[in-house]
Specification:
Blueprint lengths: L1 H5 L4 H12 L9 H9 L1 H21 L5 H18 L13
Length: 98
């Protein structure tokens, strides 16, 4: 959404990129013991702190977007439609998803 805002592009023109990043049907789940081992690693903990900093900065930026709620809802709707279809990463969203 910030990309479309920064470059003054309609959300519908870049929504496919958002959706393909949100949906990854080929990714297998990670079991709890593997997740715990990953989270305990010092580099992952440092990266998590960096992510939390970036998230706070992102949240401040996104709070300034006009009609943010409607735009986020549009992206979520498209991601949900792709989930139901089994993915949208190879092509464009259908007209009914617009």
């Amino acid at each position: 959404m910030l990309f479309s805002e920064r470059w003054q592009l309609p959300l519908s023109a870049v929504r496919q990129s958002y959706v393909s990043l949100l949906v990854n049907p080929s990714k297998r789940p990670v079991n709890q013991s593997a997740r715990a081992a990953i989270e305990a690693h010092p580099a992952v903990r440092a990266e998590t702190r960096l992510y939390e900093y970036a998230l706070a900065k992102f949240e401040r930026s996104i709070a300034t977007v006009d009609y943010r709620e409607a735009k986020v809802a549009s992206i979520r709707q498209a991601a949900y439609a792709c989930t139901l279809k089994g993915g949208c990463s190879s092509g464009v969203l259908a007209a009914e998803d617009e």
